[in-house]
Amino acid sequence: MHVMIMTLGTRGDVQPYVALGKGLLANGHQVTICTSQRFETFITDHGLDYGYMNDEALALIDSEEVRALMGNVSNVFTALKMAAKMSRRVGPLQKMMIADSWAATEQANPDVIIFHQKAYGATHFAEKLGIPTILAPTLPQFVPTANFAAIGFPKLPLGGGYNRFTYNLTRRLTVMGISGYTNRWRKAHGLKPKPRWTDFLLKQDGVPITVMHPLSKHALPVPQDWPENIHMQGYWFLEDSADYTPPADLQQFLDAGDAPVYVGFGSMVGTRVAELTATIIAGIQQAGVRAVLAKGWGGLESDDLPDSIFMIDHAPHDWLFPRMAAVVHHGGAGTTAAGLRAGKPTLVTPHFGDQPFWGERMFELGVGPAPIPQKKLTADNFAEALRELVTNQAMQAQAAEIGRKISAEDGVANAVAIVEHVVSSYRA
Questions:
Q1: Which of 29, 104, 121, 319 could pair covalently with 51 via S-S, beta carbons 3.0-4.6 A apart?
Q2: Are 19 and 43 in contact (CB under 8 A)?
Q3: CB neighbours of 406 closer than 8 A, spacing ≥ 6?
């Protein structure tokens, strides 16, 4: 079986699919991952085939203009405003993404396509090829549930009807924004255009597609009102620390005192890098803790760090986090998962998107303080949260217990079994 995986985004939007790809490869299947070109070596180094997609979308995301806009995205409505403002620049990139991913799909000639929500051409490509698709969103954003509202919508005391409505609206808005591009592709490839409000959770014949969420039920309880074609089978962890040897100075820092706190925000630091760095350093010193500060894609910088803080470019989370006393990050789904599996108390300082959702989840689970949005982060409130992370024994015990439960799951193996079942059932 040849599996095509399509995704678009930062490393956090790619790494889980590499983990799934390795699981499929180990089970005897061929795997091609189609995503931005900057991840080609990352994919091929893990023994998987690479399908080309241009890097222009990530270059736009990494621009100063978009960073500034993302700093003002707090909910689905401000996200729509941002999308409208960027539409003229995004449109050509959408066309390129569809063209690139279709070319990669044609070349691979797969038996099934697994796709991230941003790789929206997948369902149309699968229809053209007569193969099944599996949506694999990294967040619970599209499948309706009465339990909680879709990410980006306010929590309102309006009951399950309101909550379910937010998911249906999210899907409709998603399709509305891309239907022009997909219908032009469909027309060019002999397929009838689809209505603007087509539900991408349904196949052409109206049968629901399979959806796999690479999430753990111990981080987010599985909604009981999800139908049987919707799965939450556990996180997809990429075990990438086996060959890792830490730099000597990092190991010396870890050995020199109490376990430090990890602080890292990936690419999510907006445009206020110097200000945020100063706040973080002041808070760490005020709390009297040691810390490992991850420079990250966002470029946190300091040329004059105190002895209690060590800055790194990168270290595998599955190696680093178990050696920490606690973790502080922006609330990306992948980093959140790594911190939970390591059994460490977590403070989330969200920037935008799904990050506030995961911050609230850490607080609700009892494994961390209430999230502090980056815009509201001060040395004082950061220091107070750090002290709670390293002294609250109940929080530490709860984090350790959830870590044990998540470590006992094998989300990749569970997902591989689902993929194999979907393809065999489709062929039957």
A1: 104
A2: no
A3: 216, 218, 219, 234, 235, 337, 340, 341
One domain, residues 380 and 422: no
Instruction: Compute, in degrees rounded to 10, the torsion defined by CA atoms 82, 83, 89, 95.
Output: 160
For 196-251, how does the pLDDT look when each residue is reduced to its tens digit (9 = 90+)?
778 888 887 778 999 999 999 999 999 999 999 999 999 999 987 778 899 999 99
Same domain, 76 and 206: yes
- Structural domain count of the chain: 2
- Exposed/middle/buried for 90, CB within 10 Å: 0-12, 13-18, 19+? middle
Low-confidence spans in the chain with pLDDT less than 70: 57-91, 267-271, 296-302, 428
Query: How many other C-beta atoms are found inside a 10 Å radius of the C-beta of residue 88?
Result: 8
Query: SS3 helix, strand, coil % of the chain, rounded to 5?
Result: 50, 10, 40
Residue 241 lies in a domain: no
Q: In this structure, what token pair is assigned to residue 148?
A: 């909680």
SS3 358: helix
Within a domain: 349: yes
DSSP letter (8 states) at residue 371 = P
Distance CA 276, CA 61 (A): 20
The pLDDT tens digits of the residues spanning 344-361 come to 999 999 987 789 999 999
Cβ atoms of 147 and 158 within 8 Å: the answer is no
Query: What's the chain's length in residues?
Result: 428
Range of the domain at 140: 2-235+409-427
How buried is residue 366: exposed, middle or buried, by Cβ count under 10 Å (0-12/13-18/19+)? Answer: middle
Output the CA torsion sign for 239, 240, 245, 251.
negative
Using CA atoms, how far apart are residues 364 and 210, in angstroms rounded to an integer?
29
Residue 198 CB partners (closer than 8 Å, separation 6+): 175, 179
CA distance 109 to 167: 32
* Positions of E strands within 316-392: 326-329, 346-348
Q: In sequence order, what DSSP letters do the residues of 54-72 get, joined into one string?
A: -SHHHHHHTSHHHHHHHTT
| C-alpha gyration radius of the chain | 21
Q: Does the global pTM surpass 0.85?
A: yes
Residue type at position 174 = T
Q: How far apart are CA 264 and CA 339, in angstroms?
A: 12
Confirm whether 109 is domain-assigned.
yes
Q: Is residue 332 part of a domain?
A: yes
